[in-house]
Amino acid sequence: MFLRSTVSLLLLALSVPSFPFVAAAAERQPNVVIFYCDDLGWGELGCQGSKDIPTPHIDTLAKNGLRCTQGYVAATYCSPSRAGLMTAKYPTRFGHEFNSVANRSGLVLSERTIADRLKDRGYATACVGKWHLGDAEQFHPTKRGFDEFFGTLANTPFFHPTKFIDSRVSPEIQKIDDDSFYTTDAYADRAVDWLEKHKDKPKFLYLPFNAQHAPLESPQKYLDRFPNITDKKRKLFAGMMAAMDDAVGRVLETIRKQGQEENTLYFLIGDNGGPTPSTTSDNGGLHGFKATTYEGGTRVPFLVQWKGTIPQGKTYDLPVMNLDVMPTALIAAGGKVDSAWKFDGVDLLPYFTGKNIARPHETLYWRFGEQWAIHHGDWKLVKSRGGGPQPELYHLGKDPFESSDLAANDPDKVKTLQAMWDAWSKEQTPPSVPDAPANANPKKNKKQATPAT
Prior knowledge:
CATH topology of the largest domain: Alkaline Phosphatase, subunit A
Structural class: alpha/beta
Number of domains: 2
Distance between the termini: 83 Å
Strand order of the largest sheet: 6-5-4-7-1-8-9-2-10
């Protein structure tokens, strides 16, 4: 009897420390929050140099974290950019080269998403915003690792959104009759509500705004903040930006009030460059626009915050990409990256903290139909709409605005980079769905003027 009691007490004693240990381990897993901003130009944030549209809440991410001056996305418009973010792979690896893939099918089911992998680590997961990775039910966020979805399946008006789903109500598309329903505000409401409902569990919140995508629509309360902007289109853009900045601020404040600010890894990234002529989006003097492979199409605002873990208020000046988000988040969550997954992205934390001073990526690639680019070291070889019949060569270290084509001066460099891109392109999968006719014969773009640096 004595022996049995002693053993029982010993087992109880051994078991008690395990509970706080498990809780402590869970607390060490950071929340992961991704703000994905639609059609946001490279120069359209206060921390990126914008003067006419304040973004005080978004700017705190740069103040309390890192601003990546060479932040890129793996595709230059909506759906392929998201496919890369969700999988940590070039979307061309699995045929997701064009928006038409999402319009006619969806993100290939053989690919696991960042939500799948973080859910495996015990995370609560939610997608709040624009999905654009497939309309059919098997492609919906709740089938791709997200516990909850509140948003639209594709592009939408901001008022009376189309293809809208609230998975708390139904997995089916629902009609929004409320005239006051404005997507950006509604997304902030749901994000805050979801965060409060899951305050005691590690959380992954993916918040892909449909701002700043067309159509330009804003409630009057945001327009009233900009009495000095007289251009109607620019004023609408400013109102939309103010709404998005407030939405980001509400999420930041909610997590701060939960005492989890230092246990939250934030990313704020543009999904592609701004379509300047149609929305007034400012690409900060970069050459090109959305849906081109010039810097104005591929380089985006890219902010990362994890207070107490990565430096605060500094810039990181080596190239990074949206493909890096998943491996960074997964390893931060205590997971590992299996080489069999064949990620193109890398864990950025050793680079951000200075443990690794090399480039996260020596070479970056793009393929978008007949348009393409390779960024190797400081050099870039690019074939883009708006350019001539031959690839153009730029030294981005000296000429980030792609103003001086050096191809004629250095044919050997052109040949080397062309061969590297050709070899990479052969590894990619042909598009699973052809490009839409609108992109098959794009109109020419004129080069933007280069502002003072």
